[in-house]
Every structure is written in structure tokens, then in C-alpha cells.
Amino acid sequence: MYILARIINTLFTILNYFIIARVVISWVRPNPSDQRWRKLIRLVFDVTEPIVGPIRQLIPTGSIGIDFSPLIALFALSVIRRFVIRLLIF
């Protein structure tokens, strides 16, 4: 069970990095027509959209213009990670 817990922990860590990369991409705004960035941007958005998209629909940005969905997703993934790993270890 310990190995499974480590694998799940690693997957959650990678997913967190993808969400952080999505935030950085939204700040930097690389040229999507550039072939060097297109595949990376597409990969990051394809991996994170199933998580961030539903949160964004529940909590719209409104007039503020700030998208808190990645922050909420990171928090939710942290809670889920702890819960799953505790179930596996104990």
C-alpha cells in the first residue's frame, strides 16, 4: 500500500504543477501560433480543464476579473490527496 500511496502522491504533485503552469501561461501569454509552445500549452490546458473548468462555472470571475479557480483547485486537490493517502496508509 505504501508504494501505491507514493504513486498517488506523485500524480497529485504533477497535477499541481500542471495547474501552476496554467496560471503562469495565463500571465505570460505566449504566442499560441508558435509551434514550440502550441503543444505544451495544449497539453497543460487539456490536463487541467476537467478540474478547473467546473470550478470556474461554479465561481464566476464577475466584475473583479480575477480567476480564483486554480487556487480553489489546488486547495481541493490537497484535501483529496490527504484523504486518499490516509485511507491507503492506515
TrEMBL record:
Keywords: Membrane, Transmembrane, Transmembrane helix. It comes from the Bacteria. Pfam families: CCB3_YggT. The keyword Transmembrane helix applies. InterPro entries: CCB3/YggT. The chain crosses the membrane at residues 7-28, 68-89. GO terms for cellular component: membrane. It comes from Halanaerobium hydrogeniformans (Halanaerobium sp. (strain sapolanicus)). This is YggT family protein.
